[in-house]
Amino acid sequence: MQPVASLRTAAVRRLRSRSVRREGAAVPQSPGLRPKYSLVIPIFNEEAVLPLLLHRLDQLLARLDAAAEVIFVDDGSRDCSSIVLAALARANPAYKYIGLSRNFGHQVAITAGMDRARGEAVIVMDGDLQDPPEVVLEMIAKWQEGFEIVYAQRLTREGESRFKRATANLFYRLAGRLASIEIPTNVVDFRLIDRKVLDAFSTMREKDRFVRGMFAWMGFRQTAVTFDRPLRAAGETKYPLRKMLSLAASGIVGFSDAPLRLALWVGVCVSALAMLFAACVIGLALSHADLVPGWSSTIIITALLSGINMLMTGIMGLYVGRIYNEVKGRPLYLIDKAIGFESRADIEPRFARPGSPGAIDLVAPESRTSRG
After folding, report:
1. Is residue 140 located within the same domain as residue 273?
2. pTM for the full model?
3. Which of 137, 2, 118, 7 is nearest to 64 (CA)?
4. Predicted confidence band at 190 (pLDDT cuts at 50, 70, 90)?
5. Which label site among 53, 149, 348, 370 has the fewest CB atoms less than 10 Å from its CB?
6. What is the tally of structural domains in the chain?
7. Does some domain include residue 201?
8. Residue 286, class by beta-carbon neighbours within 10 Å (0-12 exposed, 13-18 middle, 19+ buried)?
C-alpha cells in the first residue's frame, strides 16, 4: 500500500491540475475583480466528498451570470481536507481557504466565512452535498426578484431515521410555541442573503449562535425555495445527537424566555400545592383524626421538591451560562491560515474595531504569486 502522505500528495496534484484546466470555464476571475456572488462552505473532515463537491461547484460557477468566489472554512479538520483545499486556493483565484485554529463548531465556521465574503449575494451551504449546489440558481432567481433572504426548505429528508425526523419535528413545534420569532420548519442554514442583510448580521456577535434563528429574527423580505434533500454523498454525519441537542438548546434559550417563565409558574404551582397539603394536615389535626406517623411521605415529598428545585436551577443556569460566555469578551474564532485573499484587509472582519471582541489579530494571507 502507498503511504498516506503520498496519497495525499497525489490527490493535491490532481485537484490542482484540474482547477487550472477548468479555470476558464466560468466567468473570468481576477484578483481585483469584486465577485457578485460568494459561496461559504464549512468543512470538517470531508476528504471523501471533496472530489465530487468540487466538480459540482465548477459546474455551478460556469452557469452563473457573474463572477463568484467560493470560501472554504476548515473547522479544524484532521484529515487531508485542509491540504487539498489549500492547494486549490493557491491554484484557482475563484477559491479561497480559511483555516480556523481548532474546531469552533458549524455555526461559528459559517460566521467566519460570511465575515469575509465580498459578494453582493452570499450563499451558505454545507459541504456534504445534502445541500445541492444546483439549488443556488433558484435562490439567485428569487434574489433578483427583490427578496433579501432566500432559504432552502426541505420537502423530503432521504435516508434519515424515524428518530431523527421525529426529534426534528418536535424541535420545530417547540420552537414555534416557545420562541418569540417564527422559525420556518424543515429549514437549515442553506440560504442566500443580500449584502444589506449580511452587513446587519455582522453586528450580531453573540457566542451561542443559532444562525437560522438569527436570520428569522432580522426580518427583511424572505422567501423559500423547496428541494428534496438527498443522502450524504460520502463520509459520515458531523452532527451526532449530542450536537443536535446542543443546537436545539441554543435555538430555544437564545430566542425565548419561556423556560424562565415555566420555572416561575412551576414554583407557584408547587407552592400552592404545598400550602393546600399543609391546610389538609392542619384540618385533620384539629378534627383529632388519627394521623399515621411515617417517613415515606416525607421522603417522597422532599425528593419531589428537591428535583423540581434542581430542574429550575438548571434552567436558570443555562441563561447565566450564556451571560458568562458573553461577558468574557473572547472572539468568536481564531484564524490559523488564510489563502487566496489578496491583502490583510480582505481577511479582517468588516465589523472589527480596536478593542472590540471582533478585532482579531489574524495571520498574514498567503500570496498566490509568491508561491509560483
Report:
1. no
2. 0.69
3. 137
4. very high
5. 370
6. 2
7. yes
8. exposed
